[in-house]
Amino acid sequence: MIRFMEAREFYDKKPLTFIYRALRVIPVNRTGNDTASIRTAIRELSNNGCIGIFPEGRISDDGQLHEARQGVALLALLSGAPVVPAFIQGTGGYSGMVRDFLRVNHVTLFFGPAIRFDDLRDRHRDKEAREIALKRIMDALADLAARAGTGGEPEPRAAA
Q1: What is the CA radius of gyration of the chain?
Q2: Which of 26, 21, 22, 19 is nearest to 4 (CA)?
Q3: Burial of 125 (0-12, 13-18, 19+ CB in 10 A)
Q4: Fewer C-beta neighbours within 10 Å, C or N terminus of the chain?
Q5: Comparing C-alpha atoms, which of 153, 13, 146 is closest to residue 25?
């Protein structure tokens, strides 16, 4: 089961809160450091669980990749878990949390190979290490987006 991380302001919207709890969604306070949600995610990853997280830290309302935040890199570096990049195509434009939750779309999921960060182990406090990890993740997502757009194979990229 994939446990997703979601902004607290969306998590607390009724009537979806009940569904989010049943799906074991991890609410995140975006106002600053949220050690409780980070600990929950690391505990899940340490138990061979799977966390779904959008690296941009928000919903893309135009379907394009946007500037990412370092949370996904931090989780990967803290836990030692690999990151499996995934790209969702066909969700349509954002029209509101409840409306989008109830809308039916034909979507295609693209998955890339797992990315490991063994060379950056124990460097989670190092901003440069987090930036390197984040660049690897976003490059992999850009490759998947290109594959989704062309129907072909992703372009090879050099790892940072």
Answers
A1: 16
A2: 26
A3: exposed
A4: N
A5: 13
Q: Which residues, in sequence order, are CB contacts of 74 under 8 Å at separation 6+? A: 38, 124, 130
Instruction: Give the integer Cα–Cα distance in Å for 117 and 83.
Output: 9
Domain-by-domain residue ranges, the chain? 1-52, 65-160
User: What's the length of the chain?
Assistant: 160
Residue with tokens 């049943």: 22
Structure-token pair, residue 105: 């779309």
Confidence (pTM): 0.81
Residue 60 corresponds to which amino acid?
A: S
CB 27 within 8 A of CB 16: no
Residues 69, 56: contact at Cβ < 8 Å? yes
Which residue from 64, 66, 81 is spatially nearest to 3, judged by alpha carbons?
A: 81
Give me the residues of the chain with pLDDT under 70, please: 32, 59-61, 63, 92-98, 100-101, 150-160
Nearest 5 degrees, angle CA 67-CA 140-CA 123? 75
